[in-house]
Design brief:
- This protein is mainly β and 299 residues long.
- The protein has one domain: 7 Propeller (Methylamine Dehydrogenase, Chain H).
- It is 0% helix and 53% strand.
- The protein contains no helices and 27 strands.
- It has strands at residues 21-24, 29-34, 39-44, 50-55, 61-64, 71-74, 80-85, 90-96, 101-107, 112-117, 122-127, 132-138, 144-149, 156-160, 165-169, 176-181, 191-194, 199-204, 207-212, 217-222, 228-231, 237-242, 245-252, 255-264, 271-274, 281-287, 290-296.
- The strands form seven sheets. Strands 1-2-3-4 form a four-stranded antiparallel sheet, with no helix packed on it. Strands 5-6-7-8 form a four-stranded antiparallel sheet, with no helix packed on it.
- A hairpin with a 4-residue loop joins strand 10 and strand 11 (122-127).
- It starts with 20 loop residues before the first strand and ends with a strand.
- 45% of the residues are buried.
Length: 299
């Protein structure tokens, strides 16, 4: 008895999901964690065209090694960190870590990957040269969100969602050196570091605030509740996604961020990145109609 198709294939709507986005300006690439597809999305930064996807696992965090253009990924519930060659679109190396990974940051001078524990209390430190775990840093509270490296001191700033504070990790002892509160900023999610102005910018609860390295608040702006922000170090433009908007601000020396513009976008947009060369903003989102990446020009 033969078995034959009774009808043509029927498309099934995609409801997937993205997490962190980053741009490699030198190699003209945009990378997004296509978490539900368990793949790193690779996009051309000049045309906005999708180049490919690399299956790596249920990743969340992405960071670029500026020396060779390789991409580090924090692979969520796979409890691992990987290195990907985006040219060959292959996973080169992976290391298991003792926890789920959310955001990651890379210090190219000390060649360290910092990977924070999703919904946890730890930051895992991986030596990128040997791809070995060298330390586990216990942070206060629960649920670390985003983190950033100070290129001058090599301190790591890690925001803590439930305590509304920022923990500062000592790069020598690999322990928390100090913390400072972020009053008015609740459910801390976005965090960026402006190297020229020596400012930590943190947000949550409809507020984006700037702090000096001692933790003194310099000022704040009112914005929608957002998830991820990204800062262009040259222009000091910071773009944030969430609440159905892309909100664009500018950091200021010794003061809080100021609003530039705001654009209503798809409700699913909660992560984005700025291309430092063009100041274009790349956003990703998932919907029942499909998953998308879109380039926005800041004029």
């Amino acid at each position: 008895m033969p078995l034959i198709p009774a009808a043509p294939p029927v498309p099934v709507p995609i409801f997937s999901g993205f997490d962190y986005v980053t741009v490699d300006a030198a190699h003209r690439r945009v990378y997004a964690a296509h978490s539900a597809s368990e793949a790193l999305l690779i996009v051309d930064a000049d045309t906005g065209a999708v180049i490919g996807q690399v299956r790596v696992g249920p990743l969340h965090g992405v960071a670029v090694n500026p020396e060779n253009g390789h991409v580090f990924t924090g692979n969520g519930t796979d409890n691992s960190v990987s290195e990907i060659d985006p040219t060959t679109q292959k996973v080169l190396r992976s290391i298991d870590v003792p926890g789920e990974i959310d955001a990651i940051a890379y210090d190219p001078v000390r060649k360290r990957i910092y990977a924070d524990e999703d919904n946890g209390t730890r930051v895992f430190v991986v030596d990128a040269a040997s791809m070995k775990l060298v330390a586990t840093v216990t942070v206060p509270g629960h649920k670390p969100e985003y983190l950033a490296v100070d290129p001058e001191t090599h301190e790591v700033y890690q925001n803590i969602d439930d305590l509304a504070e920022v923990a500062v990790i000592d790069p020598d002892t690999l322990k928390v050196r100090r913390t400072f509160p972020t009053p008015g900023v609740t459910r801390n999610h976005p965090l960026q570091y402006d190297a020229a102005y020596k400012q930590i910018v943190a947000g949550g609860g409809g507020v984006l605030a700037a702090y000096d390295r001692s933790g003194k608040e310099l000022g704040r702006a009112t914005i929608p509740q957002v998830d991820q922000c990204d800062l262009d170090q040259k222009s000091h433009v910071i773009a944030c996604a969430g609440g159905g908007y892309i909100t664009v601000l500018r950091t200021r020396q010794g003061a809080g961020p100021e609003m530039i513009t705001q654009l209503e976008v798809a409700r699913g947009v909660h992560t984005l990145a700025i291309d430092p060369k063009s100041t274009n903003i790349f956003a990703v989102w998932a919907s029942p109609q499909g998953d998308f990446v879109q380039r926005y020009e800041l004029r």
